[in-house]
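Human: For the file, kindly provide a plain-text protein record giving the amino acid sequence and the backbone structure tokens, at your earliest convenience.
Assistant:
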Amino acid sequence: MRRFTHFCRNMTHSLAQLRAAVERIYQNQKTAEQKAESIIARVHAEQRQSITNLIHYLALRREDLRPMQDELHDAGLSSLASAESHILRQVQAVLQRLGVVFSKIEFSLGDAAIGASLLRQRAAALFGLKKDSSIPHLMVTFESGMANDYMAVKALLKAGMNIARINSAHDSPEEWKKMIVNVQKAAQVTGRPCKIYLDLAGPKIRTILLGKGRKKERLKLKEQTRFFLAETGASFDRKARVVGCTLSGVVKDLRKGDRVLFDDGLFEAVVENPDDEMASLRVTRVSAAKPYLKPEKGINFPDTELTVRCLTDYDKSVIPFALEHADLLGFSFVRSAADVAELQELLALKGDKKIPIILKIETFEAVQNLPALLLQGMAEPAFGVMIARGDLAVEIGFERLSEVQEEILWLCEAAHVPVIWATQVLETLNKSGIATRSEVSDAVRAAQAECVMLNKGKYLLTVMATLQDILQRSAGHHVKKRYLFRPLKIAERFLGSGN
């Protein structure tokens, strides 16, 4: 009996300490809300609850909560995981069970049902109605042939396509219009609605071989090889190893030690001597089967803060077409809130029609600035986020992709923003007809998003059937996870340390 009494006293003391720790978290959230009053006032009226919840979530994620989460779990209480959409209410619920009494004025209006409802409403507003509510919407990337193949478009609609994606980097407005006409005709015949998503091309950052290797259209690069990255028009020795860039103005932004990645990261180099027109680089890694860099290969600058605008003149020329024919507008290579504001202002000037923007997160800078991007997006009643995992993996490193895409999902859920899970979903199946075990596991994780994007491919209908089967099977249990909350640098960067 004495041992039991001692145990109860220790438990009471432990719960009192736990209550004090959770109360401190709660006060930090309320303080962050008060400090962010001017931020909250800037967003659209329909986004006020969402930005407030995001502020509460960021305040929570500034510190390491893992020890406290273990104690909460041991005490049979919520560990605060899986509560992104209603985080303050979840903290209050824990405190109530620890004996704290809230007044009606203090009590948070947001709960799990309201947060989930907001997310569903916005997903429906962006992506339209769908037949199966238990799985995400399906977006399909159109290839050029869809302009003249009505039966193929109709087959995609019958297979479950909810959104047709047209990439303005390819084809022409005439072909895009034909694709849209085929979608509209097929939607009318099948009775299945389909939204039109138009992707802005964004800045084209590709290689041009200017010096040695230019005639053979390949430049041999081995580890420790030194070469130059040059602006178009720069003067150089034609016998030197010189690589040009299709986007002018980037070379001057390079700093010593910055990494530069070529051809989806197969070649990695580091800047040794920067200059305004020509920067000297040294190859640090070659992962390609053959060590040859060719023209028209992508270039990524993960460590460099580029001053060039991500909204190009070509993108601006496409906007009138988008306003007339599209339902959604994809914003490629967005990096800062200023980029988003520029596009929003341009759309407002072009006409009365409102077209929601999808922010494509595909650079390290965009990940770092995600809270600010979400805040600027909230100037409108609805917008979305695409996790463009191809370029993002190159920028941040493949080993970090799983971690970062999870963080993007958390922050977007806290902001009640619909997410598109994109790039290389069941890619091997799409190209060869046979799926790998790893990409099936990856497809299961896509169920956490509100929409999944598929690339064009030879076995697209098979991919759609397989993906829907995978998603339906995982729909009932894919949220069965307990996350541990280590500090998020994103949260600290946006709100400060909180100390």
Notes: The two ends are 44 Å apart (CA to CA). The chain has a mean pLDDT of 90. The CA atoms of residues 200 and 317 lie 10 Å apart. The chain has three domains: 2-118+485-495, 121-203+308-474, 208-300.
